[in-house]
Amino acid sequence: MAGSQDFAADPRNANLKVWLNGTLVPKDEAKVSIFDAGFVLGDGVWEGLRLHKGALLFLDAHIERLYQGAKDIALDLGLTRDEMVAALHATCAANGMETGAHLRLMATRGVKKAVNQDPRNALGAATIVIVAEYKEPSPEIVTQGLNVVTSSIRCTPADMFDMRLNSHSRLPLIRALLDVIPRGGDEALMLDPGGSVSSCNATNFFWVKDGEVRTSTGEFCFNGVTRGNVIRLCDANGIPVKLDFFPLRDVHAADEAFVTGTFGGITPVRAVDDHVMPAGTPGPVTTQLRTLYDALKEAQALYAQLRAGP
Length: 310
Description:
By secondary structure, the protein is of the alpha+beta class.
């Protein structure tokens, strides 16, 4: 069984350097305080980014989401956007990375003077960590697809726990995955409070019926950069796409399905709740979108090279 974030071990990850509050340190020496708000409470935001042919893909969108998330939780990151981008590039350079890497940028409220929930007890400086690892999606997933199983754990509205905020607090999503693992689930499909299809536990969910791509409205799911790219690719290439409140039975009658995320891009789904996708794994629309997405990545890499100059 393999989830949407499955990857093969890479020996190059043995001696990585980690960016920790402005210093690049060996990964075995990268430590934060047990009084850090991220450790104590999951109080912070994060971003995942892909390094492809020297480019951090869709960098502007990721940085915008990071700083908006920090604003939403009144977290001063202590770095300008340009300084944060420079830190990302410095981490890649320190590890000699050019492509095939996945970066995790983590920001917390920092060390607290006491172990409690009140954010006013933070001592003032955010903790910023950037981990860059050589990680490629498992190639087998593209042909085997994911087995997605619906969880009893629901997505939540913005006035409870906003799914569109990249919070370190992921326990509800972990619970959703734990709920479906005993039933053979690789990924958990989650419904919104009204019972409509919303999101998976770690990815955004799409399905196809009669050539039309369908997904949730986005109100109760991750604010996925890849999700947005896929919707725009559909619009730009004449692929019908509909965002709506869909019942679960609509997914059970789908021709094909896939999930999206920064790490895996577009990952096909072979079955949902034992309903095998009749169009195959991957189906024709999924295959078309994967091709378009690969072309978009190449264009992004070329644009980054041109912007960097000679």
